[in-house]
Amino acid sequence: MRVLFNSRAKHDYLSDALTLLSGWTREGEQIRRTLVIDDTQHAALTERVKVVADALHLRPEISRRADSTQIRVGHGSGDPLTEGEVLLAARIEDAYRAVTEA
Fold first, then answer.
1. Spatial distance between the Cα atoms of 57 and 50, rounded to a whole number of angstroms
2. Which residues contact 44 (CB under 8 A, 6 or more apart)?
């Protein structure tokens, strides 16, 4: 069964979900995370994120800078964050743990 949310309840639901994702910061209608990982971990993370993002039909921005990987999720075009984008951030956290614990 699918639960319908009005726009206010949906916003609160997403805000609550974001508070559970430590390390993610909100910038307008995007969320961002910087991870300190090496090149091998970056490659493994990128591959895992690609699989999940393709399944969700989303395109996160992933870039490499010095010894860190920066990830942005969201449109940035004034569209509000969606459940799928918050779900993608949670799956990125799962992938991050997997590549750093291996």
1. 10
2. 99, 102
How far is residue 56 CA from its own chain's centroid?
A: 12
Q: In sequence order, what E strands does 1-102 have?
A: 25-27, 30-36, 61-65, 68-74
Pairing of strands 61-65, 30-36: unpaired
What are 42-88's pLDDT values in tens digits? 999 999 999 999 999 999 999 999 899 999 999 777 778 888 999 99
Cα separation of 35 and 89, whole Å?
Answer: 13
Gap between the Cα atoms of 60 and 70, Å rounded: 10
- Stated pTM of the model: 0.83
